[in-house]
Amino acid sequence: MQEIQRLAGSVVGRVLAGNSLDAELAALWRGQRTLVAQQRAAIQDLCFGTLRFLGQVDALLDALLDKPLRDERLRCLLRVALYQLEHTRAAPHAIVDHAVRAAGRIGVGAAKGLINAVLRNFLRERARFLAQARRSDEGRFSYPAWWIAKLRRQYPEQFAAILDAGNLHPPLTLRVNRRRATPREYVDRLTAAGIAARGIGGSAILLDRPRPVETIPGFVEGLVSIQDAAAQRAAPLLDLAPRLRVLDACAAPGGKTAHMLELADVEVTALDSDARRLERVWENLTRLNLSARVVCGDAGEPAGWWDGRPFDRVLADVPCSASGVVRRHPDIKWLRRPGDIAQFARAQQRMLDALWQLLATGGKFLYATCSVFHEENHLQVEQFLERHRNAHRLILPGAGNHHAQPAGQMLPDREHDGFFYALLQKK
Predict the structure, then answer these.
(1) Of the listed 47, 76, 250, 370, which one is catalytic?
(2) Are residues 293 and 419 in the same domain?
(3) Residue 370 designated active-site
């Protein structure tokens, strides 16, 4: 365990230096090829958990340390160990012992004694230190102060629930390929295989417990795909019909492209600016035995890829802060900066204005983000409607019409991520 703790601490440190968790884990796997699958899973769990509850563990460290710890390697090792002590079932004595040994590997003076003293002090007076950590918003919610303040302003009734939902383990939701089976038929298949699951609307099946993708019945054969329930709302909202020309802008990795093709015989162009991520689109289409025109290009610069023929439907699931999916990517909380939101909003405006010109008169345009921030969502749409008088906003059926939140806003909960939708029609 000591090497797992040490490696997890090193990854956490590099993430907090400004790098993405996915990239750092990928780099670790390349550099540590002797790690077996179980060790990789353990390291990944520790990294995700420590970053998920970083605000709490940092508040605990501030309370436990007499003076700031300058060595970031030791601080990250303590972060990982404190996360383990508070949020995992591992034996406390083993966590402390392995952390002390890992500190010895780092080779910093009296590190072993410091690690031992801090962790044992926490175990002796856990309740007092936890109560002290909760006195600050960062310690209570495990988000940066600016993020908490923004949500408190924008969702005064719901901000705490939004923040808490972002610290849950994400659900594993499947999308049943309606060309191959009904949700009821697939749930029966799972039940026969001893896998507990239930339908939660549309084509979405929620597994009671996450499991490796290779063990999901029918996945390899294209019977199901992994896609969050909130993201699964996109394709049905587009009101698809045979032979319609559809643009899926910012399409990678292809979940929504595939969902549209599962629901109707439409002609889909899947566009993305990242050629490497487009490989995932091809992989998904091949596995599902579906076909689309896959194009590498900038959604904000259609002249480089558009053939001049208008689209009947456009889906613009644009790049955003990803503030609605932080439980899947906990590093986002600590990598984002307050000014990033305005930058995303400007890029979104550019894409919206460009893509609107490609929509046929009478066509429908679905704007989507996986964000909960107003600047990227309903405020963006309101500004768009002021600029484009030939745009009419349609009422969305179902989710996102709660009186305490803007129309189209789905807030994260135990069943789905945070998502936003606005359906527009060109007059």
Answers:
(1) 370
(2) yes
(3) yes
